[in-house]
Amino acid sequence: MSAKNKATPIWVAGCMSGTSLDGVDVALLHTDGETIFDFGDSYFRAYSKSEQALLRSQLGLWAASEAAVELIETAHSEALSQVQGFEMVGFHGQTFAHDPQGLGTYQAGDGGVLAQITGKPVVWDFRSNDVKMGGQGAPLAPFFHHACARYIKATEPVVFLNLGGVGNLTWVDPLIENPADTGALLAFDTGPANAPINDLMQTRLGKSYDENGDLAATGQVDAALLGQFMRHSYFLKMPPKSLDRNDFHDVLAQVAHLNDADAAATLTAMAAASVAQGMEHCPRPPARVLVCGGGSKNATLMAMIAAGVDCPVVPIETVGLDGDMLEAQAFAYLAMRVTRGLPTSCPTTTGVAAAIGGGRVSRG
Ligand SMILES: Nc1ncnc2c1ncn2[C@@H]1O[C@H](COP(=O)(O)OP(=O)(O)OP(=O)(O)O)[C@@H](O)[C@H]1O
Ligand SMILES: CC(=O)N[C@H]1[C@@H]2OC[C@@H](O2)[C@@H](O)[C@@H]1O[C@H](C)C(=O)O
């Protein structure tokens, strides 16, 4: 990247409330928007069961209720109050609906309100400009993944695999200095990851998720259903491509006749098979797959993914990064890029015609 437009690194607090609806992650990052200089404190503010139910009731809506928006803003300000020493905030908000080729993309929560509460500049609304310019608006973490690959001094292509509610994969060539340059990145959503498993656990057992994949480990995968799932048109699309949390919601109906363990095993196998299929798009084989997001703690899912991929699949902690906070850190990094007018997406990450930035800045 050009040396002529250098900036002084600052501490930025990135906030993410992801599609699994488990809570708000806040993480501090010391960055100039190009290089990661240091990682700082982080905090997780969980949503209570009733808060989760409120958020769940808003999925698919293009205008969330006042109560839901207030919950998102309050939860974020509570989370931010637990970390100190930041000069700016990157606020993703809560995605309730995502239809980039149709109605657009909707992240609830007003950055202006958070700016008032924190007294700091808040960068927010990261996705809508990309969608407006013809992109998918997601995934946006890939530019940060590129910075992470350089931070860990990777010398060979590497894949970052996020297993959140939805799965997303970024292939990075760390030897290309500028993430927006041709050949540096390829990124896309792989398919459903934890969302259907969580929904199954919630509706059948009143639990938030399948701890460690223990239930799935005791079940049998329904091979016919898995085969049917992999014939979904999403898997025929070439990347970049992105998903709404509930795009694959019908898989729950498909496993309705299976017992709990077989249903969990089959949904877990679907998540793993989507990753294996996604890996076929890698421009060159990566040296390894670094897994982040809560799904990295699901041993059954991790084993199924490893069985379907030709290179080592390891938790991102193996290289010293924090898989629980990577997305929050990503929005700290992207916030800094926004304030510097640097791009946050490019044709190979969101399908936008040319590398562009986005985001809005609200001042406290
Ligand atoms: N110990 C565990 N065992 C199994 N699964 C787990 C465990 N811990 C977390 N998870 C899963 O990971 C999910 C949280 O993942 P994460 O925080 O990465 O998602 P997110 O950021 O909300 O989603 P997205 O990346 O799609 O926005 C939980 O809802 C659960 O499904
Ligand atoms: C529209 C939206 O919020 N998408 C999320 C979701 O969660 C995972 C996957 O789907 C990814 O595309 C994205 O989040 C990450 C942080 C991203 O933009 O990189």
Automatic annotation (TrEMBL):
Domain of life of the native organism: Bacteria
Q: Does the keyword Nucleotide-binding apply?
A: yes
Give the main EC class.
transferase
| Family (UniProt) | Belongs to the anhydro-N-acetylmuramic acid kinase family.
List the pathway annotation: Amino-sugar metabolism; 1,6-anhydro-N-acetylmuramate degradation; Cell wall biogenesis; peptidoglycan recycling
Q: Which HAMAP family match?
A: AnhMurNAc_kinase
Pfam families the UniProt entry points to: AnmK
Identify the Gene3D superfamilies for this entry: 3.30.420.40
Going by the UniProt record, its keywords in alphabetical order are: ATP-binding, Carbohydrate metabolism, Kinase, Nucleotide-binding, Transferase
Originating organism: Pacificibacter marinus
Q: List, alphabetically, the NCBIfam families matched.
A: PRK09585.1-5
Q: Does the keyword ATP-binding apply?
A: yes
Q: What would be the name of the gene that encodes this protein?
A: anmK
Catalytic activity of the protein: 1,6-anhydro-N-acetyl-beta-muramate + ATP + H2O = N-acetyl-D-muramate 6-phosphate + ADP + H(+)
Q: Quote the protein name from its UniProt record.
A: Anhydro-N-acetylmuramic acid kinase
Q: Might you name a Gene Ontology BP term for this protein?
A: peptidoglycan turnover
What this chain does, per the record? Catalyzes the specific phosphorylation of 1,6-anhydro-N-acetylmuramic acid (anhMurNAc) with the simultaneous cleavage of the 1,6-anhydro ring, generating MurNAc-6-P. Is required for the utilization of anhMurNAc either imported from the medium or derived from its own cell wall murein, and thus plays a role in cell wall recycling.
List ligand-binding residues for ATP.
18-25
Check the record and name the SUPFAM superfamilies matching this protein: Actin-like ATPase domain
Could you say which EC number(s) this protein's record lists? Answer: 2.7.1.170
Task: Show the GO MF annotations.
Answer: ATP binding; kinase activity; phosphotransferase activity, alcohol group as acceptor
